[in-house]
Structures are given as structure tokens and as C-alpha cells.
Design brief:
The chain is an all-alpha fold. The chain is built from ten helices and no strands. The chain is elongated, with a radius of gyration of 19 Å.
């Protein structure tokens, strides 16, 4: 065990478990610098743990990447659930999805907002990589949530509802891509306005 691992926590504070610290460090570095550019040594140094601690908690860097993607998905779901709890009706449910994306964009990032962390990571991973499947499932879940809300607005038109949900998903992802390039959530605000207008015309 390294001196860092053995260091006593501050009085009144419990030191977070090594796995939690590693995942937090990896999340910061993967988002700020990219998956490929971030080495194990960088992550363990930032987490304040010995390299062996990483391999005691994750079987490989690839395993850590999957954990990061899963954590980012869960983080977004938490933001969505908070927004949904405040939403009114199916229209509000759709807009809660857009609001959760905007909330994610507004989080404090070390080098500023760089777009969707999941898509950023997927772009670095080879075809067929398990990480890309995690990202795909997230995007499919987002579109499924949109579809559920739109189906409540169009209960007798399932095919149209699915088409509208796909349209909204494309709008959301396009706005996220532009927002990431511009380093601000303005495009997401515009996308929400467009979505609201589309819903009002259903």
C-alpha cells in the first residue's frame, strides 16, 4: 500500500473508497482529455491511489472505460428523473429529456463543455467495442423515453408517435453536437424551443 493510500482522512471526514476515487478521476480525465490520451498512471495519480488499486477494482483500462460510460449514463438518468418529477403531462416529459441534456451541459467541467461524453468516447473506440454498445443503448433509451411521452400525446397514432420521437432524438443529438463544438448549451436551449413548438403542433 502506498503512502497515499494509507494517508489518514481529515478529521470528521471518511475517505472515499478507492474504486469511487478512481472512477471520479477517470471521469474527469476521460471527458477533459479523451480516453486514448488518458493513461493509467494519470488516473491513479489523480485518484491518489497505487496502480495496483486500479487493477484490484477494474480488470483493465477497458473495464474502467465501461464503468465510466455506465456512470455517465446513470448521471444523466438522475438529471432526467429530477426534471420529470417537476414536469406536467406528456409534453413536459418530452421537454424534461431536453432539460436533462441542458443540465448535463451546464455541469462544471475542468476544460469547459465538450459535448456528449458518451459520443466523444464512442468516437475513440473501434467498431464492435463493448463501450460503443453501452453508448448505443443509452441513445436508444433516450429515444425510447421520448417515444413513451409522445405516445401519450398521440395514443391512437403509434407509427406517427415513433416518427416524432425519432425526429426529436435527431434534433437533440444535433443540438448536442453543435453545443459541444461551441462549448456552450445555447443550441440545446434552441432545440428545446423547437421541440416545444413541434409538440404544440401535433
Amino acid at each position: 500500500m502506498s503512502k497515499t493510500d494509507a494517508a489518514a482522512p481529515e478529521p470528521g471526514r471518511r475517505r472515499r473508497p478507492a474504486r469511487e476515487r478512481l472512477l471520479a478521476a477517470a471521469s474527469r480525465r476521460f471527458y477533459a482529455d479523451g480516453v486514448a490520451a488518458t493513461g493509467i498512471d494519470t488516473i491513479t495519480a489523480e485518484a491518489g491511489v497505487a496502480k495496483m488499486s486500479l487493477y484490484n477494482n477494474f480488470s483493465s483500462k477497458a473495464d474502467l472505460v465501461i464503468a465510466y460510460l455506465d456512470a455517465r449514463h446513470e448521471e444523466w438518468l438522475g438529471l432526467y428523473r429530477q426534471r420529470l418529477a417537476e414536469a406536467e403531462g406528456a409534453r413536459g416529459g418530452v421537454l424534461a429529456v431536453f432539460d436533462a441534456y441542458a443540465d448535463h451541459a451546464a455541469l462544471a467541467y475542468e476544460h469547459g463543455f465538450r459535448g456528449c461524453g458518451l459520443l466523444n468516447a464512442a468516437a475513440e473506440l473501434p467498431a464492435g467495442d463493448e463501450g460503443r454498445l453501452v453508448v448505443r443503448r443509452h441513445k436508444e433509451e433516450v429515444e425510447s423515453l421520448l417515444a413513451e411521452h409522445v405516445e401519450d400525446l398521440l395514443p391512437d397514432q403509434p407509427e406517427r408517435a415513433r416518427a416524432v420521437a425519432e425526429h426529436l432524438a435527431f434534433l437533440l443529438e444535433g443540438a448536442m453536437a453543435r453545443a459541444g463544438l461551441e462549448g456552450a448549451g445555447t443550441r440545446l436551449e434552441h432545440a428545446r424551443t423547437i421541440a416545444a413548438d413541434l409538440l404544440d403542433r401535433l
